[in-house]
Amino acid sequence: MFSLVPSGAAPKIDADDASDSTKPLEESLVSSHGAGVTEQRIPLRIRKRLRLHEATGCWIWTGGRTSSGYGSLSRLGQNTTAHRAVYEFLHGPIPDGLVIDHLCRNSLCCRPDHLEVVTNQENVRRGDAAWINGERQRSKNHCLQGHPLSGGNLYTTPDGKRQCRTCKRERNRRYSIERRAKAA
Asked: Is the pLDDT of residue 175 over 50?
């Protein structure tokens, strides 16, 4: 699943890496401890936590994670996500108002060509959240009770949510009965 170079074997080094005299030869040879990620512009402490996933080509973060499943690290005394740090090491700062989208849909991937800078709106539109929260709801033709969600039976709330009028009427009826029973 993950590509690991046998111990003692040096990973493949790009021509640019071999000619970089500012890097110690030892660091160039060990790269990220055989992980297959040889990008020298990424600091060694970060490369050590990246592993190449052979099937997808993703650079999987193996260090700490956020509660939402993204790679996490400390950079310049601040916590940040691993994919954001890697992207910034290779491409510079991310402009204000933009976020990183994982084109591979893998939240632990840090591979630069799997990342794209987009607006948050575009990121949400592309992601699973749009399907779960928006499109999925709009694609429903019937409520959970089997009533049609169309025509006179469809109620749209002021905030845009869709509700079944038959079920809403039944909920209101039960609520009124319970309220009367408590008052009596």
From this structure: yes
